[in-house]
Amino acid sequence: IGEWTLPGACFPLEMARDMDVGSNSLLTYQLTSSPFFSLLMKEKPGGKKQPELVLERSLDREKQSSFELVLTAVDGGDPARSGTVQVLINVTDANDNPPVFSKGVYEARVGENLPAGSLVLQVRATDADAGSNGRVSYSFGNVPDGVRLLFTVDSETGEVRTVSPLDFEEENKYIFGLEATDGGGLTEHCEVQIVIMDENDNAPEITILFLSSPIPEDAPVGTVVAVLKVRDRDSGENGQVSCELSGEAPRSIAASPGGSYKVLVLAKALDREEAAFHELVLRASDGGDPARTGTARIRVTVVDANDNAPVFSQAEYTVRVPEDVPVGYTVVPVMATDADEGLNGQVKY
User: Fold this and answer.
1) Within this chain, do residues 209 and 279 fall inside the same structural domain, yes or no?
2) Residue range(s) defining the domain that contains residue 14
3) Is the overall model pTM greater than 0.70, yes or no?
4) Are β-strands 125-126 and 119-122 bridged in parallel, bridged antiparallel, or unpaired?
5) 249 FRET partner, CA 20 to 30 A, in 25, 231, 269, 326?
6) Same domain, yes or no: 185 and 230
């Protein structure tokens, strides 16, 4: 009997036979007491009575899948004789139960850069029905295409695995729905929340936003030489960056402390005659373990200023000259040099 059968339905049972005649062969029937079934006697042609099983209540296979009753036939003799037969009733399944997930929300926390095919989590749904009605398959619900590019769900096991590496810097949390569908088409939904944990997979990046080069050697102390932006795409300690400026000694340029923007300024007066250019290296290190580093190399050229006077090779020239030297006679060659360059270093006498 199908569990969808409505109360009041009748099911004919086999009639008993009695070899006696007359009142000794008049049969009455009795059925084991059951709240779900009763016995109805239906008149047949010739005066015989057909026993029928009547369904009194709605059946639920998931609560009780079978019944064992005893039908007894009693004749009209004195003393009466009886015969029995066992009535086995199997309740066949109707797809009256949808799949049920063990959780409404499944959560997982995984590190980024998991290899493709890594297990993230497993969902599980059960169906109280039998056969194909209780066989559950899993699939994505209405999810963005980006989710399908990153994750896959096994239709039989409910395992959610990665399709390609995850990237915390692109997205740190995914929320999407999964469906469980039984063989009869009934569907249930659950929510999946996957939190991506940051790994130190990004080195600090240094971008030069402004560079004053060449710079006059008479630029005052405090003049801004360069502005740089330091950025690390990781989070937490993995994204905390410390910077160190290095270069030839003595160093004439210093970096501002703290912040993601670094300003390089003159720490002392420049002297082109001492150093015509400065090679600087800004090294940025994050707080990961192991730490990752990024570097930026900066070359600052110093432009000459006329800050040097000509200098004679001697402070005093003493020459003895005969009085009869002709006009135009070279008395003494003198020489002066200037440490500046270009026009600033060209000497006139």
Assistant:
1) yes
2) 9-90
3) no
4) unpaired
5) 231
6) no
In this structure, is residue 3 part of a structural domain?
Answer: no
Helices (H), the chain: 145-150
User: Which residue in the block uniquely carries the two structure tokens 């003595």?
Assistant: 250
Say if residues 282 and 309 touch (Cβ distance below 8 Å): no
Q: What are the pLDDT digits (tens) for 171-216?
A: 999 999 999 999 988 999 999 999 999 888 889 999 999 998 899 9
The answer to whether residue 286 is domain-embedded is yes
Our count of domains for the chain comes to 4
Q: What's at 314, amino acid-wise?
A: Q
CA 158 to chain centroid: 18
Amino acid of residue 110: V
Alpha-carbon distances of 335 from 290, 320, 330, 345, 349, rounded to whole Å: 62, 18, 14, 13, 9
Q: Which two tokens stand for residue 116?
A: 């493709």
Indicate whether 273 belongs to any domain: yes
Upstream peptide bond of 79 is cis (omega within 30 degrees of 0): yes
44, 37, 39, 46: which is closest to 74 by C-alpha?
A: 39
Q: Which residues have C-beta within 8 Å of that of residue 338, sequence separation ≥ 6?
A: 308, 309, 310, 311, 344, 345, 346, 347
* Residues across the chain: 349
